[in-house]
Amino acid sequence: MIRRTGGSRSQGGFGLMELMIAVAIIGILAAIAYPSYQDQVERSRRTDAITSLLALAQTQERIMATCGEYATASVTTATDCDDALGLGGDGIGLGQADTASEESFYTLAVAGDADSYTLTATATGSQANDEDCATFTLTELGIKGAAVLADSEGTDSSNCW
């Protein structure tokens, strides 16, 4: 027969109360951290719009320097002035259908004529939840703009670029 000596027995591990407190603390931290994480992800994806618009503007300026006017057709597949000015190509250009940005978080559109253009990147897919910077614009003069969603209040869109 085994006889125990000493009055108390020590147990290892956590009790139910300690476990519930730990779970509650983790839940509170997650409720605070997740929205901040989502905001950072949206802000980092804005680079997709900026780089796509700047690349498209650079292509338009290169065509202007070579051909004497901005592209009225494809600017992504143009190999010469005839292609760039409307005689061929299938990429985005003035009057062309919208296309997706490099990482597909934005839809790109070009509006204008042979002397001017306005490039627009509109958030799409999961990035459409970005209320602070829903739309980016860039003109041939280098004027940068950004628009917020209609239901967003007090947002300064100058932080988008």
UniProtKB/TrEMBL annotation:
The chain crosses the membrane at residues 12-34. Pfam families: ComP_DUS, N_methyl. Keywords: Membrane, Transmembrane, Transmembrane helix. InterPro entries: N_methyl_site, PilE-like, Pilin-like. It comes from the Bacteria. The keyword Transmembrane applies. This is Type IV pilin protein. It comes from Cobetia marina (Deleya marina).
